[in-house]
Specification:
This protein has six helices and ten strands, in the order H-H-H-H-E-E-E-E-E-E-H-H-E-E-E-E. With about 210 residues, the protein is of the alpha+beta class. A four-stranded antiparallel sheet has the order 3-4-5-6, with no helix packed on it. Strands 7-8-9-10 form a four-stranded antiparallel sheet. It has a two-stranded antiparallel sheet with strand order 1-2. It is elongated and about 105 Å long.
């Protein structure tokens, strides 16, 4: 075999090895995160358990409470915590493995409660009571009742709403829908709202046992 053929075979072999490495990397990258990020997810779940145990007795740690977060099991690497922790509001938080400048990132948040490799979602801050009232006032349950009362009273009576936090851990609000009929305050509905997802939990407006 001539030296030229040997050189060509060498280059072909090197090229094939590089190609196999690239293909292998692509296949590995396309696998579910539960496989190719198993160790990171396992560590992240351990962190989540620590946060939840701490929250049951205290509150969610603030984003900048590094000493407390390290006590809960976070690893410090230079100016970063592994994984990165972001408190989204009083009841929600997000964990992110920051490994590049532009993503996607392996992340988890207490809304979806699942690990995924994606671009980060920018969550809105705490929903205000005005947001919750607006949600109720746009619901079919409320609109139908409002229309009925308006018809029966010839437009003299209307509905009122009272909003209060029912579950501080899950961020569940209870909205009492009532009317003043001239002699009494009559409650028509007690509507539960998940303020994290801005979702009505009991579309009938009745609580369990009512």
């Amino acid at each position: 075999m001539t030296s030229t053929k040997k050189l060509i075979l060498t280059f072909l072999s090197i090229g094939l090895i590089i190609l196999l490495i690239i293909v292998g990397f692509i296949i590995w990258w396309k696998l579910p995160v539960s496989i190719n990020r198993h160790n990171d997810i396992k560590f992240g779940n351990k962190i989540i358990n620590s946060i939840e145990h701490y929250r049951e007795k205290n509150r969610l740690p603030e984003t900048n409470e590094w000493n407390k977060l390290i006590e809960l099991g976070f690893k410090q690497r230079g100016d970063l915590l592994i994984p990165d922790y972001q408190k989204l509001n009083d009841t929600a938080y997000q964990l992110v493995y920051l490994e590049s400048f532009d993503g996607p990132y392996l992340n988890w948040n207490s809304f979806d409660k699942e690990w995924k490799n994606s671009m980060l979602t920018h969550f809105k801050d705490n929903h205000t009571e005005e947001d919750i009232v607006s949600l109720i006032e746009q619901s079919k349950l409320y609109l139908d009742k409002e229309k009925l009362i308006d018809s029966l009273s010839n437009g003299k009576r209307n509905l009122s709403l009272s909003v209060s936090l029912d579950d501080t851990i899950k961020n569940i609000y209870i909205v009492k829908v009532f009317e003043d009929n001239g002699s009494n305050l009559v409650t028509h509905f007690n509507i539960l709202v998940d303020a994290n997802k801005m979702k009505i939990l009991n579309p009938t407006g009745k609580l369990e046992g009512q």
